[in-house]
């Protein structure tokens, strides 16, 4: 069965420290991969996406993600977090074989930034 | 303009009321989506419209009725809701459906409370 796993429900990080959020997927073929961020009570904002090509993807707000086919992973990183990065982060996956638009979300990782 | 606009931002309705949620985009996108999101959970797909035709209905109860009057507008008509339907309702749009390698843009959501 297809699945998306974000192993960390909650991460606390100090301001200025680095951040890495994990995402693993189980799909028959390499899917389309996305990272979204959601501030409390707000909609989702796309941070970055992977469709094909370079496996290191740069996104907005200083985020990057690396696609590793061998590990079925698409981990999100930021070298130095800011207090404004406190939010919920969702990894999302879309099957290349699905032309009808089912985007599957991971459970999310809550990021707390301490001073 | 990469904006998806949802109105209203907040809605409180009784179980016998009829109300509608509205979603608008002017990016020329041909796929539009309704998601439901409960607190501390990822978004759950409800409906997908592709080229103004309903493509996916994820077994949503008939008290939710989607409508796509034109390529820029998506409505969700609500009738006889239950308190458990209280949630954040998110609209999204994409150039085409995800299986064709497009990204989704989300609105800020409508916070619905059923009393």
Q: Care to describe what's here?
A:
The complex is a heterodimer of chains A (115) and B (115). Chain A is 0% helix and 51% strand. Chain A contains no helices and twelve strands. Chain A has strands at residues 3-5, 10-14, 19-21, 24-26, 32-38, 44-50, 56-58, 64-68, 73-78, 87-94, 103-105, 109-114. Chain A starts with a strand and ends with a strand. The mean pLDDT of chain A is 92. The model of chain B has no long low-confidence stretch (mean pLDDT 92). With 115 residues, chain B is mostly beta strands. In chain B, strand 5 (44-50) and strand 6 form a beta hairpin. The chains are: A mainly beta (115), B mainly beta (115). The A-B interface holds A 32, 34, 36, 41-46, 49, 51, 90, 94-103, 105-108 and B 4, 6, 31, 33, 40-43, 45, 48, 50, 55-56, 88, 90, 92, 94, 97-101, 103-109, 111.
Largest sheet of chain B: 7 strands, mixed
Summarize the amount of helix of chain B as a percent range. under 10%
SS-based class of chain A: mainly beta
Strand content bin of chain B: over 45%
As a whole number of angstroms, the C-alpha radius of gyration of chain B is: 13 Å
User: How many extended strands of chain B?
Assistant: 11
Spatial separation of the terminal alpha carbons of chain A: 41 Å
* Count of DSSP strands of chain A: 12
Number of helices of chain B: 0
Multimer state: heterodimer
- End-to-end Cα distance of chain B: 36 Å
Mean pLDDT across residues of chain A: 92
Sum up the overall morphology of chain A in one term: globular
Question: What is the alpha-carbon Rg of chain A in Å?
Answer: 14 Å
Helix content of chain A: under 10%
Give the averaged pLDDT of chain B, no decimals: 92
Low-confidence segments of chain A, given as residue ranges, are: none
Mass-distribution shape of chain B: globular
Strand content of chain A: over 45%
């Amino acid at each position: 069965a297809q699945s998306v796993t974000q192993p960390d429900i909650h991460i606390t990080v100090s301001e200025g420290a680095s951040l890495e959020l994990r995402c693993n997927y189980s799909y028959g073929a390499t899917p389309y991969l996305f990272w979204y961020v959601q501030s409390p009570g707000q909609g989702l904002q796309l941070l970055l996406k992977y469709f094909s090509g370079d496996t290191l993807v740069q996104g907005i707000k200083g985020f990057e993600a690396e696609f590793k086919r061998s590990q079925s992973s698409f981990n999100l990183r930021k070298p130095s977090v800011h207090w404004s990065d406190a939010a919920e982060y969702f990894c999302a996956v879309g099957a290349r074989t699905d032309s009808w638009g089912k985007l599957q979300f991971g459970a999310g990782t809550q990021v707390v930034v301490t001073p | 303009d990469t904006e998806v606009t949802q109105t209203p931002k907040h809605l409180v309705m009784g179980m016998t009321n009829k109300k509608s949620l509205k979603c608008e985009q002017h990016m020329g996108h041909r796929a539009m989506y309704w998601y439901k999101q409960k607190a501390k959970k990822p978004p759950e797909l409800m409906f997908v419209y592709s080229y103004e035709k309903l493509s996916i209905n994820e077994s949503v109860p008939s008290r939710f009725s989607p409508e796509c009057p034109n390529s820029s507008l998506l409505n969700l008509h609500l009738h006889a809701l239950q308190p458990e339907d209280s949630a954040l309702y998110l609209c999204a749009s994409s150039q085409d459906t995800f299986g064709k390698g497009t990204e989704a843009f989300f609105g800020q959501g409508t916070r619905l409370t059923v009393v």
